[in-house]
Amino acid sequence: MASFKIEGGHKLNGTITPQGAKNEVLQILCAVLLTPERVVVNNVPDIIDVNKLIFILGELGVKVEKLSANSYAFQADEIDLPYLESDDFKRDGSSLRGSIMIVGPLLARFGRGYIPRPGGDKIGRRRLDTHFEGFIRLGAKFRYNKEEKFYGVEADELFGTDMLLDEASVTGTANIIMAAVLATGTTTIYNAACEPYIQQLCKMLNAMGAKIEGVGSNLLKITGVGNLGGCEHTVLPDMIEIGSWIGVAVMTQSELTIKNVSWENLGQIPNVFRKLGIQLEKRGDDIYIPEQNSYEIQNYIDGSVLTVADAPWPGFTPDLLSIVLVIATQAKGTVLIHQKMFESRLFFVDKLIDMGAKVILCDPHRATVIGQNHKSQLKATKMTSPDIRAGISLLIAALSANGTSIINNIEQIDRGYENIEARLKSIGAKIERMND
Ligand SMILES: CC(=O)N[C@H]1[C@@H](OP(=O)(O)OP(=O)(O)OC[C@H]2O[C@@H](n3ccc(=O)[nH]c3=O)[C@H](O)[C@@H]2O)O[C@H](CO)[C@@H](O)[C@@H]1O
Ligand SMILES: C=C(OP(=O)(O)O)C(=O)O
C-alpha cells in the first residue's frame, strides 16, 4: 500500500486546471456500449476507477484506442457476452461502483446485463434497488444469486412505461435512462437525479440519436429509438475536485486560480463556500481565490448556527461535505455538518480531532465544528485514508498542519484524483509518494 509524506504549513501559489469529472465519465464510458459505432470521449481523467472501467470494457470486447493523454475512442461492435458470466468479470466488476452502469446499456442492446455487487467507497449502505426496480418496470426479469452476490436482468424486449423512482439515485437514474433509450415506446422517469453528470449523459445520448426531454429536471421523458450512432463527447471539469482545490487554498491560506471550472454547472457549491466566509471571485470561467488569513462562517438571518447538509441535486453534493468539514476546522465560527445520505462518512473526524481540531461527532450523520480561526494550527499525524473524500480531506488537513504527516492507503485518493502529488507540487506543496 502506498503512502503520502506531507510536510505541512507551507503557503502555495499558482494555477490549477481541474480534471474531467469522475462521476460523469463513468456514465459516459458505459454509454459507449449502446452503439456499434465509434464514440470519442475527451477530458477523461487518468484515475484508478476510470482505468478499471476502461479495462472492463476492453475485456468485454470494446475496441479501445487511446488518442492522447485524456482522449479515447471506443467501438462496441463485437461484444463478448460470455465474459459477463466469467470469474474474471465477477472479480473485475466488483472493484468499483461505476461498473453497475454497464447493466442498463447491455440489457437494452443485447437483452441481458449482469453485474457482481459493485465496490466503491465503504461509506454506508449502498443499495441497488432503484436500478433493478427500474429495469423490472421496463419489462426485464431479475435474478439475484445471494451466495455469489451476482445480479442479472434479462428481456427479449423492453417497453416504455411511467415510473416514479423510490429515490433520486444518480447511478440508478443513469442506468435506467440507458435502458429506456432503446425501449419500445415512451418512458417517463419522475424523481430522476439531475446532477450535471446526468445532464451530460443525456446530451451525449441525444447526440447519438436518443430522444430525451426534460434534461436538467427531475422528470425525464424518453421516446425509445431503434438504434443509436456514434458521437464525440467532452467531459465537464470535476466539481468535486474543484471544491477540493478550494479546500487546499483556504486551509493553506494561499492564493490560487482554478481554471475553466464551468461556473454554470457548479450549482450550490460556490454559495456554500461563501457561507463559510470564503472569498471566491469569478474571473471569466475561472475561480480566483485570494490569500485569506481569516474566513468567518455566516449565521442564519435569525442568528442561529449555519447547517451545511447534502441533498439530491440541485442541493449540495454529499461528496463535498468532508471537505467543507475540514475547511470549517480553521474558520471563525461554528457550523453543523449534516451528512444525510451516507451513515459512515463522518467517522474520519477522529483523525482531525487527533490533529487538534475542535469537532463533536453528534451521531453518524452530524458533526459540529468549532473553527479555530487559524489561531491554533493542526498538528501533523499518521493516518489512513478510509474513503476517497475523507482521504483528500485528511490530505488538505496535513498540508495545513504543523510538521510532517503520513497518509496510508492513498489508493483511495488515486481512485478519483489524477496525479495529485505532481499537481500539488506544481503549486509549491511538499509532498512525496512512498511505495511499499
Ligand atoms: C459513481 C458515482 O456516481 N457515485 C456517486 C453517486 O453514487 P450512487 O449513485 O451510488 O448513489 P445514490 O445516488 O444511489 O445514493 C447515495 C446514497 O444516498 C441515499 N439517497 C439518495 C437519493 C436520495 O434522494 N436520498 C438519499 O438518501 C441513498 O439511499 C444512498 O445511500 O451518487 C452519490 C450521491 O450523490 C455520490 O456520493 C457518489 O459519488
Ligand atoms: C462516493 C464516491 O465515489 P463512488 O460512488 O465511486 O464510491 C465519491 O466520488 O465521492
From TrEMBL:
GO BP, sorted A to Z: cell division; cell wall organization; peptidoglycan biosynthetic process; regulation of cell shape; UDP-N-acetylgalactosamine biosynthetic process
Chemical reaction(s) catalysed: phosphoenolpyruvate + UDP-N-acetyl-alpha-D-glucosamine = UDP-N-acetyl-3-O-(1-carboxyvinyl)-alpha-D-glucosamine + phosphate
CDD domains according to UniProt: UdpNAET
Location, primary (coarse class): cytoplasm
Keywords attached to this entry: Cell cycle, Cell division, Cell shape, Cell wall biogenesis/degradation, Cytoplasm, Peptidoglycan synthesis, Transferase
Pathway: Cell wall biogenesis; peptidoglycan biosynthesis
One Pfam family named in its UniProt record: EPSP_synthase
UniProt: phosphoenolpyruvate binding residues: K22, N23
Gene3D superfamilies given in the database record: Enolpyruvate transferase domain
UniProt keyword DNA damage present: no
Enzyme Commission number: 2.5.1.7
Subcellular location: Cytoplasm
Ranges in coiled-coil conformation: none
GO CC terms in record: cytoplasm
A GO molecular function held by the record: UDP-N-acetylglucosamine 1-carboxyvinyltransferase activity
Top class in the EC scheme: transferase
Boundaries of every Enolpyruvate transferase domain copy: 7-424
Active site location: D121
HAMAP family in the cross-refs: MurA
Stated family: Belongs to the EPSP synthase family. MurA subfamily.
Full protein name: UDP-N-acetylglucosamine 1-carboxyvinyltransferase
Organism, scientific name: Polaribacter aquimarinus
Gene: murA
